[in-house]
Specification:
Length: about 475
Amino acid sequence: METRHYHLIGICGTAMASLAGMLAVQGHKITGSDENVYPPMSLELKRLGIPVNEGYNAENLCERPDLIVVGNAISRGNPELEYALNEKMYYTSMAAVVKENFIRGHHSIVVAGTHGKTTTTSLMAWAMEKAQAHPAFLIGGVAENFNASFRVTSGKYFVIEGDEYDTAYFDKGPKFMHYLPDTVILNNIEFDHADIYRDLEAVKFAFSRLINLIPSQGHLLAGWDSEIVRELAPKAFCPVISFGTEDGATWQATNIDFSGEKTTFTVCCEGRKFGDYQSPLVGMFNVKNCLGVIAASEVLGIDRQAVQAAMAEFQSVKRRMQVRGIINGITVIDDFAHHPTAVRETLAGARQKYSSQRLIALFEPRSYTAQRKQFQDDFTAGLLHADKIIIAGLFHPERYSKETAINPQEMIEQLTAQGREAEFIASPDEIVKTLAPQLRSGDVVVAMSNGSFGGIHEKLLRALNESLPAM
């Protein structure tokens, strides 16, 4: 393959940083720039030896790269993008590069849906690895079993997280439309990304287009507990295999038990017992994630015992219920939850795992969905799983009006009225200053944001460590 110089504008995005690493593995020269440089992707790029310019500047393109990859967070007015357009430089999207450089010619396994994509993609890749299929993969997070968010191999399979977010400023279609799907695991569909989709019908149309891409020899693994997935599945021109916890699914999880050190459940196929499984993951949503992988693995002919072992040995994904530290009996957890359902299921899973302990939820309204008024009641209901709740300030309040933005004070009043201890504290530093002295042994703190949350996890752990008596 001819080596090229790729420059990635917005290189610290989860998918963009992974693409940078994949291109480096192919032997290409990689440079990039970003203004939001924080872990885990900044650490991944440093580990890979890929230089990152902090801030956008036309001078970053002075070497005239062969190809510019424009991240989907980049919009007109960006100095590097404007320079590239004026100079008629060749540019494209992350998804298009992944398709042409890595997916074409391979069996593409696309994991899609509103929730659970990252965990399910990681679990699918790990199951195939345990079965010695050696898949290539691209995941929207760092899979702890691999300690990586990507891998390039010469194997038959490419496993990829199919994001429904838009591709680039010049391509407003979902990224997953580029991924040439052969096998699709579609977990669930809900309204999300209100900055991209005007309503639920627009979301449904996007996923129906993905289903329409699957070739007749491919397969759709359909999450049957999702009403919208059930509605759209008949549009497929390929076989549809359903999975879920409710009656009517071909693959069903039963006898689910969260009480032990690991979650255990029985899998039935067409009403007959298929096998018993255990997983360190918590929450009903993770049982469904596991079930989708088990069903897909059987369709693909992956060794059953290897899949069973993979479930038990799975180490999850960074920023998905990730324990960042335990100090003086106080557990601090980092989670990516930023949709009402994700907040609800994350805290419900934490409640199952830490049933006898005080559960404290820290919530940063950072994503477009997390900051919109239309989701306020749903977020409030999800936060009720915690004993104590602290809501931080909106990430970009100037983007919203009083009518369109969530109102944290109203949420606090509603939570307090339902017997919860709740308060609004705008900044992460103030949250740490207020919360740290209140914590006691046995407390579990779950910080939820799709961004860095101002480094609140490290700051809280540091404050707890400093409060320990001198030895």
